[in-house]
Amino acid sequence: MPKVRVFAFAGSLRKGSLHKKLIEASKGLAPEGMEINAYDLKDIPPYNMDLEDAMPSAVADFKKRIAESDGVLMAVPEHNFSFSGVMKNAIDWASRPYGESAFDGKPVILQSVSPGRMGGSRAQYHLRQVLGALSMIQMQFPEVFIGPAGDVFDESGALTDERASEQIRKQLAAFKEFIAGRGD
Amino acid sequence: MPKVRVFAFAGSLRKGSLHKKLIEASKGLAPEGMEINAYDLKDIPPYNMDLEDAMPSAVADFKKRIAESDGVLMAVPEHNFSFSGVMKNAIDWASRPYGESAFDGKPVILQSVSPGRMGGSRAQYHLRQVLGALSMIQMQFPEVFIGPAGDVFDESGALTDERASEQIRKQLAAFKEFIAGRGD
Amino acid sequence: MPKVRVFAFAGSLRKGSLHKKLIEASKGLAPEGMEINAYDLKDIPPYNMDLEDAMPSAVADFKKRIAESDGVLMAVPEHNFSFSGVMKNAIDWASRPYGESAFDGKPVILQSVSPGRMGGSRAQYHLRQVLGALSMIQMQFPEVFIGPAGDVFDESGALTDERASEQIRKQLAAFKEFIAGRGD
Amino acid sequence: MPKVRVFAFAGSLRKGSLHKKLIEASKGLAPEGMEINAYDLKDIPPYNMDLEDAMPSAVADFKKRIAESDGVLMAVPEHNFSFSGVMKNAIDWASRPYGESAFDGKPVILQSVSPGRMGGSRAQYHLRQVLGALSMIQMQFPEVFIGPAGDVFDESGALTDERASEQIRKQLAAFKEFIAGRGD
What ipTM does the predicted assembly reach? Predict the structure, then answer.
């Protein structure tokens, strides 16, 4: 039986990104039969419609990987009470050109981690409006908001908090069912 | 008496951007005593916190110009039911490093143009949440949503629609008063 | 073959409500095999958790009808840049008591009409966040934003605008498919 | 020197409402020179435009008290990922009839308390869009999100948590300055 392939990206470019760490942690917390492939947005340039005729190769690659996946995991940083510009920029690219979006009909889940108690909320709910526009199939619950970040990762960047791990484990297990329920 | 200096940028990089044209049109519609300086985001790289110690020169310049202005005009494209990633990316940069945002306390107005009747709405209301986070001083009314774009610009890119021009003229005149009301 | 039963309510109490008229129009525009049952919120009191032990009979009836339906049509007025309080109040009731929501897993569509060009947008996108919380299954497209109202209804309250009628006809036909696709 | 009069209401009708308790606590935490007058929404009927010609007396009273105040404190419950219908219904009433809103230009602050860690966030950010529509003057920071509720109130309903009390104390002191800064 083939594995469920989840394509994952974090809306942050810095090396020590907490959202990249969330995705790394998710790899180890995924249920049997699910593989999570992480993608780094570092080569995605700022979106420019004038470049659409010859899509930048990083964008073409990004779109191809989304298209080949069974579902998408977005790790969403909150900057200034919304999703990061870097996250939205990558999404804008992959939704283009008009009529050739990579996201159409793809199941999707969200994860956020923040320094405080509430972070990620404002980012995820804005992003859900975007996902609606993209006709993605959103799994709503369980939601994953991890924090405060200082308490859940150890110095090596591993997610050591059991409550946070359990939240992610439940989300990924539910996502496997959710994806299966969309098929046939 | 010194002019009111409004710093303006469009959240789009393409050459023929309708939002750049909106700003060009605004220059000619500004009240006496207001000058509008347009800025092109083309050199702003994707935000990366690792680069904050040595801010990219384009970002430093962008921040300096915002700081020197009396108010900010953002021309906001709507992509996928929210503001463009390019717009948010530039805002994320200029809000950093922590405690050194260029936006704090700056008066701000928004303009959008869209191919349809409703476009821009979803972008501007999301953006207002971001502007709240940045402690910008938002002028709410009159709002400027121009469309359908096909009817308002001529082939040379000039705004020829009188109703649209009047909306912008009113907004800019009100903004001059709004900025003056914040002082002394 | 049994008919698809759509339960419909408008978030407005006034007799001449445009949103009630939208629902009336929808009855005539529904595809074969779909029946639309309109409900008036006039007997739903303001939500008060202290009354949950003995649910007001209007609320119990409202919940029962939602539960018996195959899908829900909400006609959403925009007041003050969001959905009406009357609409949200009825939704709050039907989501209660905790664990006994009438909405869980129900397919849902939205319609709005407004005096201007943009109205309804701000109401519907806020409402979609609520529908997510309720685990309703949202059909996103085609969206129905009708306006300006003055141009589309005749004096008897009938929807006479062909373009508006066609939008609704398409939405209801798609909703029939959408509901069918959720079953078995 | 006259006191700053803050008009306060909670978007909940139940007797033991946490949001009513927040307002009670705020009375004791207000700075010298500020008085907080609490209002109970229990007599406000569901909004019906047909009743606008003869405003219900509770609504007329509600509007009069808002108009006489120097600022407004809204204690905002979150129901189903947004503000309560009861809260929005009262706001819809007080914004009417067209051109006679009680809220225009009034300074405003928000407080929320919730059983969990994140509650109130989704309610307050939706409400801020409404406040923008109403041309209220929003103080953004400090924000007040209190929770988890189980840890901060004692059995008599008094706010006993020092961190929560300090948040409110800071907000109210800042609001006094904010209101003063709007004058003369």
Answer: 0.96
